[in-house]
Design goal:
The structure holds two protein chains of two kinds. By secondary structure, chain A is α+β, with helices and mostly antiparallel strands. In chain B, the strands form two sheets. Chain B has a five-stranded mixed sheet, with helices on one face. By secondary structure, chain B is α/β, with parallel strands linked by helices. In chain B, a hairpin with a 5-residue loop joins strand 5 and strand 6. Chain B starts with 19 loop residues before the first helix and ends in a 10-residue tail after the last helix. In chain B, helix 2 packs across helix 9, helix 5 packs across helix 6 and helix 14 runs antiparallel to helix 15. Chain B is globular and about 75 Å long. Classes of the chains: A alpha+beta, B alpha/beta. Chains A and B meet through helix 2, helix 4 and helix 5 of A and strand 3, strand 5, strand 9 and helix 13 of B.
Chain lengths: 157, 422
């Protein structure tokens, strides 16, 4: 069971909804908000959002499962999203992903046992001039090699 | 090589540029002041039409013509949607405008809205650009405080509000009707056209959808005039382009150059040639969905019509350079996997076609290729192209077909006469 939305969160959701002529249009920003406050969006959170925006819960589920950035289960404290697309691959991106898998002991899509890291393979992040690149939470890191990855991981506490 | 004129990126080196004071100090918002004080909306529109400003998002449609599709005298609200979804693999130009010069985009948005009679604009920005979205929101607040946005801008009686709206990781949302669905809080399934967004768009109202780089050009066109802009480029495709070069070049990065600059010059003069002394093998000239060019096909001018005449697409101007030694199958695997993942699943030819292409390519990569695989890929691609609601189907089919056609020998090498790898 996740806790009910706080009055502050409800206030923020209503403010977002007020920015659009139709409340339902705020669904993506609202889900981003809920996810940033709670780490992921649980089934109960989905229902709560549906209630606040006046839509059937299934409409929220449709959106949750369509967009790759919304998470229905928790992720690690550091969410590492490594680009597996072409420009990064041409600069060694695939071996970087393999190095991360070995180093963290999880496959792409997995979370370390201590809950510190989640490793995900993603499509082009739009930073190809710094290929190979990845994101940790919302920060971009580029021009990476195995040694720089090791330094980077070591700097995260 | 002539010195390249820098327009959009001229002041990108200024660390303080994202702040309104720095933007104003280098002439920012002058075009807006001029337009609101001296020009009627139709005059702004005409100037952009005459400038030959082609869309920078991928399709290359003339922006001024697009604006002209908005019905006159409608009593419905009209909307501007700014496409900042930048998901085309190999493309990173809009990110640079958004992060270095958000006020340039804002000024372009206000001018466009004034020309078309729009009072609400939405910037649909890809979800991963969270930091940049926050910076843009900060810039919007600055502009509102300075009186460049909001009610009665510069005392002209013109009102405009801008809302920043983050996407959430779906390539298809860069397609304009999927973007509208997504903005309305739904899955990004493209709409059946017609009606086109200019007539029935966001919230069922007339809507203009323009790319970030397209709008960023508008202030310069208004400040310097259409002839100046046309002179920078080629007759039907004015201005400069921010080309993003990635892959096997010595100096990957963004290069703002006149429309019509040769692809060879971009790669070998500006981006420093091929990395590590290797030879060029192939180039994807305009983002992943543009058909690949062989090394002997790069003497092409990078404007919308010239690249189309060469059998490819200028697209987003994201140039991906592939060097000798990179197996073409590696490129094909990335292409196939991407579209299989990003097909929204609404149209059968795209949903099934992209996944069969992906399965076939993965089987080839696993050493289980068969005679007839390349023909199968060509057939699958042909059965997607032109048979889907939105251009994602074409975007998936074109690069696969081009690779299969141009690199058949390499893809089939290693197969014995029975079509099996020994």
């Amino acid at each position: 069971m996740s806790a009910a939305f706080s009055p502050e969160l409800i206030g923020k959701i209503e403010a977002l909804a007020g920015r659009y002529p139709v409340k339902a249009a705020s669904l993506l920003p609202v889900l981003h908000l809920v996810q940033s406050e709670r780490g992921h969006v649980s089934a109960e959170d989905e229902r709560a959002v549906a209630g606040l925006l006046g839509m059937p819960p299934v409409k929220v589920r449709e959106v949750m499962t369509f967009y790759t950035m919304f998470r229905r289960i928790p992720v690690g404290r550091y969410h590492i999203q490594v680009c597996t697309n072409l420009s990064c691959a041409l600069a060694g991106g695939d071996s970087l992903a393999a190095h991360l898998e070995t180093k963290l002991g999880v496959k792409l899509g997995g979370t370390t046992a201590d809950g510190k890291f989640t490793l995900t393979g993603v499509e082009c992040l739009g930073a190809c001039e710094t290929a190979p690149c990845l994101m940790i939470n919302f920060d971009y890191y580029g021009n990476l090699d195995a040694a720089r990855i090791d330094d980077l991981l070591g700097s995260l506490t | 090589m002539t010195k390249a004129p820098q327009v959009l990126t001229e002041f990108f080196w200024l660390e303080q540029l994202p702040r309104i004071e720095a933007y104003v100090a280098r002439g920012g918002y002058e075009a807006l002041k001029k337009a609101l004080a001296q020009m009627k909306p139709d005059e702004v529109h005409d100037e952009v039409r005459k400038a030959g400003l082609r869309g920078r998002g991928g399709a290359g449609f003339p922006a001024g013509v697009k604006w002209g599709f908005i019905p006159k005298g409608t009593d419905k609200p009209k909307y501007l949607c700014v496409n900042a979804d930048e998901g085309e693999p190999g493309t990173f130009k809009d990110r640079s405008i958004l992060s270095h010069d958000p006020h340039l985009l804002i000024e372009g948005i206000v001018l466009t809205s004034y020309a078309v009679g729009i009072h609400a604009a939405y910037v649909y920005i890809r979800g991963e650009y969270e930091m940049i979205a926050r910076r843009l929101e900060g810039a919007i607040d600055e502009a509102r405080r300075a009186g460049f946005l909001g009610r009665n801008i510069f005392g002209s009686g013109f009102d405009l509000e801008i809302v920043v709206h983050r996407g959430a990781g779906a390539y298809v949302c860069g397609e304009e009707t999927a973007l509208l669905e997504s903005l309305e809080g739904k899955r990004g399934n493209p709409r059946l056209k017609p009606p086109f967004p200019a007539a029935v768009g966001l919230f069922q109202c007339p809507t203009v959808i323009n790319n970030v780089e397209t709008l960023a050009n508008v202030p310069f066109i208004i400040r310097n005039g259409a002839p100046w802009f046309l002179d920078l480029g080629v007759p039907k495709d004015g201005g400069t382009r921010i080309f993003g070069v990635s892959g096997a070049v010595a100096k990957p990065g963004l290069y703002e150059l006149p429309s019509g600059t040769s692809l060879r010059e971009i790669i070998f003069t500006h981006a420093g040639g091929i990395k590590d002394g290797r030879k060029l093998k192939a180039v994807i000239p305009g983002g992943m969905s543009s058909p690949i060019l062989r090394a002997d096909e790069i003497d092409v001018h990078m404007d919308v019509d010239s690249v189309a005449a060469a059998g490819s697409m200028l697209g987003s101007g994201g140039i991906i350079v592939i060097a000798d030694g990179t197996p073409i199958l590696q490129v094909l695997r990335k292409v196939a996997a991407f579209y299989a993942h990003e097909s929204c699943g609404q149209c059968t030819p795209c949903r099934l076609g992209t996944s069969w292409i992906h399965k076939t390519v993965e089987r080839m990569a696993a050493g289980r290729g068969q005679a007839g695989d390349v023909d199968a890929l060509l057939r699958l691609a042909a059965n997607i192209q032109g048979r889907t609601l939105c251009p994602l189907g074409d975007a998936a089919a074109m690069p696969v077909a081009a690779i299969a056609r141009k690199f058949r020998t390499e893809l089939e090498s290693g197969l014995d006469r029975a079509g099996v790898r020994p």
